[in-house]
Amino acid sequence: MTDRSKTFPIIEIFGPVIQGEGAMIGHQTHFVRLGGCDYRCAWCDTMYAVIPEEVRSNSVPMTAREIVERLQELNPDTPWVTLSGGNPALHHLDTLIDMLTEAGFKAAVETQGSIYRPWLERCSLVTVSPKPPSSGMNQDLSTLTRFLDLPGINLKVVVFDEADLAFARDVHARYPEVPFYLQIGNDLERDDRDSLLEKLDWLSSKALNDPVLSQAIVLPQLHVLLYGNRRGV
Ligand code: SF4
Questions:
Q1: Residue 139, SS3?
Q2: What is the dihedral of CA 107, 110, 112, 116, to 10 degrees?
Q3: Engineered SS bond to 179: which of 28, 40, 136, 154, CB 3.0-4.6 Å?
Q4: Nearest CA residue ID for atom 3, ligand 1
């Protein structure tokens, strides 16, 4: 039996906004950011949703019903709700997914693929984003296999340098049938619009000249190009 009084650490709920990256780029979506992550990526841009002390001070405990009610207040006509983090797969979101569906929302999830949950099978889009060497994490690619049969599965790798690109090639070569996105890495301290466009040019050229990556989709973080490195966009 599901416990509808259970709460989740919610860092932020906002929207609708234009999704700036990955398979849903350009789509209107709400965002629900859950606190907690089993990784500590060197370039994480959401550490406020990762470090336990920060999660404790930045989050509000909300039930699934309260989350859905907040989304309905924001805009019930925007169909997509993107569940992000941190790693949302740390949490048991079965009730939330059911309630989102009952309310007419479609769930999209972003996770690094370290933890599998059955509720992922009821999401309309699952973006698995294994972390490349520049993250400092030692990503175990064998955990990804479990995700491959999910409806709406896609893979996304962030690329900062040549080592990341080699990792991305490896991931795509292992699972060539899964839609595959390459995203330029964004250094919050150093990057601005011009440097990000240069990186996009570099990454596009690499993909265009590499037969292994001939079906990869190369994307910027659209929201960063439009608004800079800001929260809530
Ligand atoms: S997996 Fe994502 S949320 Fe977690 S530390 Fe890495 S970049 Fe941050």
A1: coil
A2: -10
A3: 154
A4: 86
pLDDT digit string (tens) for 66-114?
Answer: 999 999 999 999 999 999 999 999 999 999 999 999 999 999 999 999 9
C-alpha distances in angstroms, 47 versus 35, 40, 87, 89, 94? 9, 8, 11, 16, 25
Domain 7-226 has CATH 3.20.20.70: yes
Tokens read off for 28 = 């209107």
* Per-residue pLDDT reduced to its tens digit, 108-148: 999 999 999 999 999 999 999 999 999 999 999 999 999 99
Q: 87 C-alpha vs ligand 1 centroid, how far in Å? A: 7
Output the ligand 1 site: residues, CB below 6 A: 37, 39-41, 44, 46, 50, 85-87, 112, 131
Paired sense of beta strands 7-18 and 28-34, if any: antiparallel
Sign of CA dihedral 51, 83, 87, 217: negative
* Residue 167 backbone dihedrals phi, psi, to 5 degrees: -60, -45
Tokens 């993107």 identify what position? 82
Q: Is the distance from CB of 9 to CB of 34 less than 8 angstroms?
A: yes
80 and 36 Cβ atoms separated by less than 8 Å: no
